[in-house]
Amino acid sequence: MVTGRSAASCCVGWTTAEELYSCSDDHQIVKWNLLAGETSQIVKLPDDIYPVDLHWFPKSLGVKKQTQAEIFVLTSSDGKFHLISKLGRVEKSVEAHCGAVLAGRWNYEGTALVTVGEDGQIKIWSKTGMLRSTLAHQGTPVYSVAWGPDSEKVLYTAGKQLIIKPLQPNAKILQWKAHDGIILKVDWNSVNDLILSAGEDCKYKVWDSYGRPLYNSQPHEHPITSVAWAPDGELFAVGSFHTLRLCDKTGWSYALEKPNTGSIFNIAWSIDGTQIAGACGNGHVVFAHVVEQRWEWKNFQVTLTKRRTMQVRNVLNDAVDLLEFRDRVIKASLNYAHLVVSTSLQCYVFSTKNWNTPLIFDLKEGTVSLILQAERHFLLVDGGGIYLYSYEGRFLSSPKFPGMRTDILNAQTVSLSNDTIAIKDKADEKIIFLFEASTGKPMGDGKFLSHKNEVLEIALDQKGLTNDRKIAFIDKNRDLYITSVKRFGKEEQIIKLGTMVHTLAWNDTCNILCGLQDTRFTVWYYPNTVYVDRDILPKTLYERDASEFSKNPHIVSFVGNQVTIRRADGSLVHISISPYPAILHEYVSSSKWEDAVRLCRFVKEQTMWACLAAMAVANRDMTTAEIAYAAIGEIDKVQYINSIKNLPSKESKMAHILMFSGNIQEAETVLLQAGLVYQAIQININLYNWERALELAVKYKTHVDTVLAYRQKFLETFGKQETNKRYLQYAEGLQIDWEKIKAKIEMEITKERERSSGSQPTKSTGLKH
């Protein structure tokens, strides 16, 4: 839709999703009401004011309903900026620069304003228009400026260079050559932390916040005059002469329009990210709506054909359903046999079994920025908070944490499973908050998960028991880690699974993890192996070459045994992985061990046997573990498992299984709780934990001579002298009598055997399975 105006339109800005203000060289400020299709003149500015840039004051975060922005900044060619109210009253005019003020931008909180001008100065102003500081001064005009996501840095242009300057004095400045021509426009998104730049070299580029290039467009016929991120950071728009382009955040192009507009100088996205307005050189304002978005799940394909209409196609029987909505569609998600659609006022939940009767409920706030689905429920994120609903439309919970900013959450920083919600903190990016889905309260003892580096992407596994819930995450070094979600007192281990991982996804039906690692596509068929027997982890992986996916591919979904990957050029690639590991997971979760062994014998693959070995040890089924370890040639482990079987009591067996998995502390605790002090001392002697062995012997006043005897034997073997002060102290005047010690040990074993044969009730091991 293109709408005419007289003089060249310079700048545009949305107040709500349906109302836009525009300014032009004929000094008029015009309000456009898109619902009614009306335009009205708000005010005619004095003849000496030629507008250059317009930016509305940001809405306060977390407000109910769509309150409208009340004031905007308008920069002009006479070196001033003007604070103008919604009704068109000029509240304040401030002398800011020598020559034109080329751009003005509020920060995300609305606490500061940055202006740049032809005089090469970058100035920071207070909300009321008082000068706070001159951030920088350079010899060339600064054409464009943008705030960093945390409002603590400013990005601006300097000829062909881009510069990121923190507000703190003496902080490091980042500067790089970005284009071969003068840079005309920049934008920096707060959700994905990526930077856009456009230049006279007829190219647009995407950068990360360290100045590393992620995408470099082909040269166009004309200079690129405008770029702008959609609010959620998934899309961006590019404007040039007679050209409007819609692109994915990775750079590839969804659509190219050739409106007869002249150059598009300014692009503004509506608050809900469904439409854009462009200020054009021929005096027109161009409006465009984002349509033809597509969602896929198994055999269903859903397409947004118009602003209020979706088409559902079942590719198995070619059945087509049309879904009509009262208001325009803002966000949608299709997963777990449900389609969730949010419009400007309501949320619709469709079941894939029945498209005719959706469940509908009203939304607390208008603009939903993110929908996430799990098997039992789904999550909506809007400007006011995070809300969890069941598929029946029942409100379940709304997790909160201090300093929560919902406007910058995306699918990489929030994760949902049937019982857990995980959210990466923005203030401290090393922290992940974990909440119970049903109540919205912090998990376990309320501790958050803290990592040594900044976390980039998080993902919860989707299946299994709540107590076994795991979270995988990638940190800024591109290392992949896994850890347990349940955190009670003891510090849970954070274990590294892989390096150079760029993107990851959990399977929707069982806990299989896939990721793109440097030049390889990797599937971790049983990631929990790291908790059971880390040595066999490499044997539980599936790897294949990933060079066919080109640079910067992204995993879109992992449904059933199909992984969907989007390449950097926008094309989708589908990979099928073996269906057998998923069947193995199913057998093990329902304790069908014989079926699991039969399946592995049928498939005859190392990876299957290795997965079964780890699963069996994790579930304490040592008979199956023995068969599986034998199949992968781990003879030493087979012998150890055999020796465990011959142990006299179930506590000893339990302790040795724990030791097998490397949980020495837990093994010792199990033995001590069962009153098997000698056995606890013995495992420390076997592991050469001499300090701990003596400590236990002294504490329980038993077997001190046994510990000293083994220590002496150990030192004699290596021809060493005792140097440990504690050992010297207890060995003073003590004669080692091996006959006596052997008799004592024999007695301990007999005692344990008698206990386990039922002459005495055994204590609970106190260990959770």
From TrEMBL:
<protein>
    <recommendedName>
        <fullName>Intraflagellar transport 80 homolog</fullName>
    </recommendedName>
</protein>
<feature type="region of interest" description="Disordered">
    <location>
        <begin position="750"/>
        <end position="769"/>
    </location>
</feature>
<dbReference type="InterPro" id="IPR036322">
    <property type="entry name" value="WD40_repeat_dom_sf"/>
</dbReference>
<feature type="repeat" description="WD">
    <location>
        <begin position="176"/>
        <end position="208"/>
    </location>
</feature>
<dbReference type="Pfam" id="PF23387">
    <property type="entry name" value="TPR_IFT80_172"/>
</dbReference>
<keyword id="KW-0853">WD repeat</keyword>
<dbReference type="InterPro" id="IPR056456">
    <property type="entry name" value="Beta-prop_IFT80_2nd"/>
</dbReference>
<feature type="domain" description="IFT80/172/WDR35 TPR">
    <location>
        <begin position="608"/>
        <end position="754"/>
    </location>
</feature>
<dbReference type="Pfam" id="PF00400">
    <property type="entry name" value="WD40"/>
</dbReference>
<feature type="compositionally biased region" description="Polar residues">
    <location>
        <begin position="757"/>
        <end position="769"/>
    </location>
</feature>
<dbReference type="InterPro" id="IPR056157">
    <property type="entry name" value="TPR_IFT80_172_dom"/>
</dbReference>
<dbReference type="InterPro" id="IPR001680">
    <property type="entry name" value="WD40_rpt"/>
</dbReference>
<feature type="repeat" description="WD">
    <location>
        <begin position="94"/>
        <end position="126"/>
    </location>
</feature>
<keyword id="KW-0966">Cell projection</keyword>
<dbReference type="InterPro" id="IPR015943">
    <property type="entry name" value="WD40/YVTN_repeat-like_dom_sf"/>
</dbReference>
<feature type="domain" description="IFT80 second beta-propeller">
    <location>
        <begin position="292"/>
        <end position="580"/>
    </location>
</feature>
<dbReference type="Pfam" id="PF23335">
    <property type="entry name" value="Beta-prop_IFT80_2nd"/>
</dbReference>
<keyword id="KW-0969">Cilium</keyword>
